[in-house]
UniProtKB/TrEMBL annotation:
It comes from the Bacteria. It comes from Corynebacterium canis. This is Precorrin-6A synthase (Deacetylating). InterPro entries: 4pyrrol_Mease, 4pyrrol_Methylase_sf, 4pyrrole_Mease_sub1, 4pyrrole_Mease_sub2, CobF. Residues 3-216 form the Tetrapyrrole methylase domain. One of its GO terms (biological process) is methylation.
Length: 262
């Protein structure tokens, strides 16, 4: 039976890889990756960098990612259709390139358990494959580390949601927002809402900001548009808390991975 390692590779830094992940990489016949095109070449380039550093003899086999409607009339149905196409493509690639007693790996941005479709795709495959999951550093951890803050207040809950759900959840303590294609924080009208935001976390051109949404929300939205135009893509994440007292409402920023300046 073939073995497929699903390896979390962290939020963007090659140094996010765990020792367990490195050991798994060094025993596979190939690494498989969906190619999202020239606009997101950085995502594929990171995988090549990881292989060059830890498993230089392991080939990278790419698959053209099936197209997806980003503004569908029926969101859930479109996502299911897209995942089915990806599952069928991945299954054909595994059968064609990996021997029956061999092993392959898929490198997953962040951690396979958090807002990632890889495990759902594998569950839909008809070919029997042994799945082994190697956890990775999440974008949430990378965000709080970059800002040097704890994720939660003492004894408080943590909410992890998407931009679609943010307008209904921002008033909850420690609201982490992922998959925001726009600037959903602008829907938050509470004057005490404070945001810690980060994009390209762990990468050389990492950017972070922090401040009250009423003060920096529109500037942050403009920055996000500028960064998307500059790089051709953007992945960002943010934490929102309702708090009446903050050490600063000014923007904090960095263009270097791993820290900020006030």
């Amino acid at each position: 039976m073939r073995t497929l390692f699903v390896i979390g590779i962290g939020a963007g830094s090659p140094q996010h890889l765990t020792l367990e992940a490195v050991a798994a990489l060094q025993q596979v016949d190939a690494v498989l990756a969906f190619d999202k095109g020239d606009v997101k070449e950085d995502l594929l380039a990171l995988r090549r960098t990881i292989l060059a550093a830890h498993a230089p003899d392991v080939p990278l086999i790419t698959m053209a990612d099936p197209p997806r409607d980003r503004r569908p009339k029926e969101y859930v149905g479109e996502v299911k259709r897209w995942l089915t196409e990806r599952s069928e493509l991945l299954e054909r690639t595994i059968v064609a390139n990996i021997p029956e007693d061999g092993a392959a790996a898929i490198l997953v941005w962040g951690d396979p358990s958090l807002y990632d479709s890889t495990l759902r795709i594998l569950a839909a495959m008809r070919t029997e494959v042994r799945i082994k999951v190697i956890p990775g550093i999440t974008a949430i951890q990378a965000l709080t580390a970059a800002h040097a803050i704890p994720l939660n207040r003492i004894g408080s809950e943590i909410t992890i949601t998407t931009a679609r759900q943010f307008p209904d959840t921002y008033n909850k303590d420690n609201c982490v927002v992922m998959l925001d294609g726009g600037a959903a924080w602008l829907t938050c009208t509470d004057p005490n809402a404070y945001i810690w935001w980060g994009a390209y976390l762990g990468m050389p051109y990492q950017e972070i900001r922090a401040g009250f949404i009423k003060d920096i929300g529109h500037e942050l939205s403009a920055l996000k548009q500028e960064l998307r135009a500059r790089h051709g893509w953007i992945m960002d994440i943010y934490l929102v808390r309702i708090q009446e007292d903050a050490s600063s409402s000014s923007l904090r920023r960095t263009s270097e991975a791993g820290g900020f300046v006030a």
